[in-house]
Write a structure and sequence with these properties.
heterodimer, A: mainly alpha, about 0% strand, B: about 425 residues, alpha/beta, Rossmann fold, 14 helices, about 40% helix, about 20% strand
Chain lengths: ~325, ~425
């Protein structure tokens, strides 16, 4: 029989691994789902996804707070353009605005390139990402920024009634409340997108279009509108990721490029177009990262993700839950 | 080998005959400086402020103003040895290979006679190697690793900034007095030259001076944006103190995430190396946290106040420690050229070696010849609460530890491993 102290220690270690994996994985999932539905349904490689994250972060900062920006805005006398409406206002406005940006991107950028090779799409969207990054740098300056956490989600989660007691009982003593908010928000958003794509007529049309767009059009269903909406949703998710990631990780105009690689990796390992796959891949990455740190292999925490990705793709090139493509 | 006669060129010869070396002699009417800083990557905020200071230094060298008029008697404010100062800028992206490429481009394509930059020791060390190979002087800006003037020292590199070793020396007595002697500590460190030497030095001096005991020291990759797993393990270690050996954006992020996760309630946090942009990004999270800083505008003396004033006049913002280093190092090089009467690198190096000065706001200093390290005081600081940061100050100066209580001999510590290499005219 295992002594109580050892059992408690083991339970604590497992609980820490799970919560750490979950909090690291939630960000990967949030970043990947938007990218995955665009790539999976529209077959469009969007390297500007990171730039949409940055748009969400800066827009959120402007709506929620009163920041002072450097760059050209300051030179032109518009350094203090913050509205200070609070975080909840940003949570409403940011997805809507980035959705509209996504819709415009689909109409004027993506649509003319649907029939072009992937390389053309990559070059185009990568170019857009570079332009947006530089534009942000010129306008706002290169200084690192963060968004303040809303007052109701500040501090350690161990201080939250009930939840705090549960975490303490499990031996978890270092989780921020904001992390818990991100986990819940990710679960809700991913759930909504999943239901929309899997269980609605709209989703059925989109999925049918993915399998055989020509046949769907021949049946009299116009795909341009659902595609517009899907791109908008994918963009909005990236914007929300920027908004909820903003209080967690400091960002600057370059940060969009930093998050692009793990986002793509999550999509590819999960299987392009699969929301379930993105969730499993994101959680796996989070758990691997947390496990490597917890068991004393912290130097390998980032490399480990890439190693696992390489192994998965060698064994299943289509990703964990991706569809095999006939040659 | 081509020989340039001083008087024949009229400028830069200093009365002696000097062979071509590196980018000497200068072609054209302007001497070109290279400012190679991170404008992208985790240290980009620091890089941007350095760039502002470099541009200001070039302006003052050409037109007068700032320390050129008041602190550096060797400088005229009408160029350097009658050459106007021009400059090129590069982005190291906080990456050593990118820093090397950018420095090589400055040397080979732009013909710079001196280059400067830093903000990551790995990039500074890489640039020092370019300097030594190409025989073009490199004036280190912010680099804090023991290795920069230790095992990786180079004849063609000079460092004004203090190092991880002296941060440990300066910080240990202060935190021992504040938190007592019976403490255990856990370290997280950025996994490259600076972080590695920083955690070694903190371990050495907190053990030796403060009598504390290290529980563990864990590397984190440079550019990490999610420290949650690392912090969770630190919280679970049972240590009393958590030391975050992170800098720039990484430093702001790890500190903020530690505070958010509630670690400040159960552990004492230390951030050994601070700067203004970092504190600005971390906000209220730095409240009460001890560290050291290169320089701060609150250091009240004539040179410090003057620099703050001219920088603020030019850019409408208070300069950071890295900015002061960038400004000082550029003028220091130019003054050495004036004293040498030539841009010929070995002569300029000899002017800088063992040079004593007291004109950059950090008290009396010596640029030691044996390792090219400035022997200087170290400011110990403590973060201010968020509500007090509105005035533009992010930390209070706890003390400026005298250089007499710090440092090590030429055959001790990091200097014992330093072999500078040739001047190039032997």
């Amino acid at each position: 029989m295992i002594p109580d102290a050892v059992a408690l220690q083991t339970t604590g270690a497992i609980a820490r691994l799970l919560i750490n994996g979950l909090q690291a994985g939630a960000i990967y999932i949030l970043l990947a789902v938007g990218l995955s539905i665009i790539l999976g349904t529209l077959k469009f490689v969007n390297f500007a996804h990171g730039a949409l994250y940055i748009i969400g972060a800066y827009l959120g900062l402007i709506i929620a707070q009163d920041p002072s920006f450097g760059g050209k805005l300051a030179e032109w006398g518009f350094g203090d353009i913050g509205l200070g409406f609070g975080y909840l206002a940003a949570l409403v406005v940011v997805p809507l605005v980035v959705f509209v940006i996504g819709v415009l991107m689909e109409r004027f950028v993506a649509r003319p390139f649907y029939d072009r090779p992937d390389t053309d799409q990559i070059l185009l969207t990568y170019g857009i990402a570079l332009i947006l990054t530089e534009l942000f740098r010129v306008l706002f300056g290169g200084a690192s920024r963060s968004i303040d956490q809303p007052p109701w989600a500040r501090g350690s989660a161990t201080g939250v009634p009930v939840l705090g007691d549960a975490l303490t009982a499990l031996g978890i003593n270092a989780v921020s409340t904001w992390r818990i908010v991100i986990i819940l928000l990710t679960a809700v958003l991913v759930g909504i997108v999943f239901v929309l794509i899997e269980y609605t007529d709209f989703g059925l049309t989109v999925r049918a279009g993915t399998v055989d767009a020509e046949m769907v059009e021949l049946l009299g269903v116009k795909l341009s509108r659902p595609y517009l909406v899907v791109f908008g949703i994918g963009a909005a998710l990236a914007g929300v990721a920027g908004l909820v990631g903003g209080p967690l990780v400091n960002f600057n105009p370059d940060y969009g490029a930093t998050i692009l690689v793990p986002a793509f990796l999550t999509v590819v390992v999960g299987g392009v177009g699969s929301i379930r796959g993105a969730v499993i891949a994101g959680l796996s990455f989070g758990l691997i990262q947390a496990g490597l740190v917890q068991f004393g292999f912290s130097e390998w925490a980032q490399v480990g993700i890439y190693a696992v990705a390489a192994v998965v793709l060698l064994v299943r090139p289509q990703g964990l839950l991706g569809q095999e493509v006939a040659a | 080998m081509a020989v340039v006669t001083g008087p024949a060129t009229g400028r830069g010869g200093g009365g002696g005959d000097y062979p071509s070396l590196g980018n000497f002699p200068i072609e054209g009417d302007a001497a070109v400086f290279g400012f190679n800083v991170p404008t992208t990557g985790p240290y980009s905020s620091e890089g941007e402020d350095e760039l502002r200071a470099y541009e200001l230094a070039a302006k003052h060298l050409n037109e007068g103003g700032g320390w050129v008029d008041s602190q550096f008697d060797d400088l005229s404010g009408d160029g350097v040895l009658d050459y106007q100062i021009d400059y090129v800028e590069g982005d190291t992206a906080t990456d050593p290979s990118q820093a090397t490429n950018s420095a090589n481009q400055m040397v080979d394509r732009d013909g710079v006679i001196m280059f400067s930059g830093g903000s990551s020791s790995a990039t500074a060390i890489a640039q020092q190697q370019v300097a030594q190979d190409s025989k073009v002087l490199y004036m280190c800006c912010l680099t804090h690793s023991n290795e920069t003037t230790g095992v990786e020292c180079r004849r063609y590199g000079f460092r004004e900034m203090f190092n991880a070793y002296t941060t440990g020396q300066a910080l240990a007595p202060v935190v021992a007095e504040e938190y007592g002697e019976d403490n255990s500590f856990y370290q997280l460190y950025a996994d490259y030259s600076w972080g590695q030497t920083q955690q070694e030095s903190m371990n050495q001096f907190l053990t030796e001076i403060a009598g504390w005991e290290q529980v563990d020291s864990v590397p984190t990759p440079l550019g990490t944006d999610d420290y949650s797993s690392f912090l969770s393990e630190a919280a679970n270690s049972g240590a009393d103190v958590l030391i975050l050996n992170h800098y720039g954006l990484d430093g702001a992020t790890s500190l903020q995430q530690a505070v958010d996760a509630g670690l400040k309630d159960s552990m004492t946090l230390l951030v050994p190396l601070y700067n203004r942009p970092m504190a600005e990004a971390a906000g209220d999270a730095i409240s009460g946290v001890f560290g050291t800083a290169a320089w701060d505008s609150q250091i009240d003396n004539e040179a410090s106040n003057q620099f703050t004033e001219v920088f603020q006049e030019e850019y409408d913002r208070i300069p950071s420690g890295p900015a002061q280093l960038a400004y000082a190092q550029t003028l220091q090089y130019a003054a050495a050229v004036e004293r040498a009467g030539t841009f010929y690198p070995p002569e300029v190096i000899r002017q800088l070696e063992d040079y004593e000065y007291d004109n950059i706001g950090m008290g009396a200093e010596t640029m030691r010849a044996c390792d090219h390290q400035a022997i200087r005081d170290v400011p110990v600081v403590r973060g201010l609460p968020g509500e007090e940061q509105e005035q533009g100050s992010y930390f209070e100066i706890v003390n400026v530890t005298s250089r007499d209580d710090l440092w090590y001999g030429c055959d001790e510590g990091p200097a014992a491993e330093c072999e500078l290499g040739p001047y190039g005219d032997e």
